[in-house]
Design goal:
- The strands form six sheets. Strands 1, 2, 3, 6, 7, 8, 9, 10, 11 and 12 form a ten-stranded antiparallel beta sheet that branches. A three-stranded antiparallel beta sheet has the order 13-19-20, with no helix packed on it.
- Helices cover 11% and strands 50% of the residues.
- 9% of the residues are buried.
- It contains two helices and 22 strands.
- The longest helix has 22 residues.
- It folds into three domains: 123 residues, no CATH class; 103 residues, no CATH class; 30 residues, no CATH class.
- The chain has 263 residues and is mostly beta strands.
Length: 263
């Protein structure tokens, strides 16, 4: 994935030396294009292979084509290949401009708490992520922290701009999700069939089995899980209708007989 800027923090170790600049024992690094009329500097992020159970967070920022990635996978290997004229800003050292005549690799290893990256892309890639990515415990919110009166307040905020839920068990019945509507799962397991980046948004298509799906917060929380009656109606609509009618007729007939009225 070519990038015009890459910032990374939470690094445990790095390997390699770039133009006599040691990259050992660093904790944070930022690479960005340096102004140059002749050569445009780029950093290309190599594919990242995550182990099972790794937590991945992706969200867009207020700037076009800028995204933040959080990877909770201690020890994960990362590599960026740098080329052209770039500005390197290493924690504990002054920024410096370096011209890479040929691409050079920078290898990094995630620390115990994982790594956080912010990336700026020259253009939005068509398919930045592997299709059909197995995923569980899907979350569609962010954590906001702010100080009010000397107290640190933390709140969960929905990141949904728009969307649609399709219930396969109800014959693919759809339900629209309003902007900012909270959507939470007690448990989810399935696959991400599409994860596409936009200029200021991220599009996700997820298919899976969920439990404890709900919307709202506090006392206004309500379940979105289909009821057993809805499932029966979707699977056995006509049969259920006639069965309910016959059952109701039987109740009425039994009541009339109890009152001594013949039917």
């Amino acid at each position: 994935m070519p990038m015009t800027a890459l910032g990374i923090s939470g690094v445990h170790e790095a390997r390699g030396a770039v133009n006599s600049l040691s990259l050992t024992d660093l904790t944070a690094l930022r690479i960005s294009s340096a102004p140059d009329a002749g050569r445009t500097g780029t950093a290309t992020l190599a594919p990242i292979a995550l182990p099972a159970g790794a937590a991945l967070g992706v969200h867009s920022t207020d700037l076009p084509r800028e995204y933040e990635l959080s990877i909770q996978a201690p020890g994960a290997e990362l590599r960026a290949d740098v080329a052209g004229r770039l500005t390197l800003d290493v924690a504990g050292s002054p920024p410096r401009q370096v011209d890479f005549a040929v691409p050079e690799p920078i290898a990094l290893r995630a620390g115990r708490e994982g790594v956080d990256m912010d990336v700026t892309l020259p253009a939005v890639p068509a398919k930045p992520f592997v299709p059909q990515l197995s995923a569980r415990d899907l979350s569609l919110f962010r954590i906001d922290e702010f100080n009010e009166g000397g107290r640190m307040l933390v709140r969960r905020v929905s990141t949904i701009i728009s969307g649609t839920l399709f219930f396969e068990s109800l014959g693919d019945r759809g339900r629209r999700i309003r902007p900012g509507e909270a959507l939470e799962f007690e448990r989810s397991s399935g696959e991400i069939r599409e994860l596409r980046l936009g200029d200021r948004e991220i599009r996700v298509r997820y298919h899976g089995r969920v439990r404890g799906m709900s919307t709202g917060s506090g006392e206004g929380r309500r379940s979105l899980m289909p009821t057993y009656l809805e499932w029966l109606r979707a699977r056995h609509g006509l049969t259920l209708l006639w069965g309910s009618a016959l059952y109701a007729f039987g109740l009425v007939a039994a009541g009339l007989r109890w009152w001594g009225i013949r039917v």
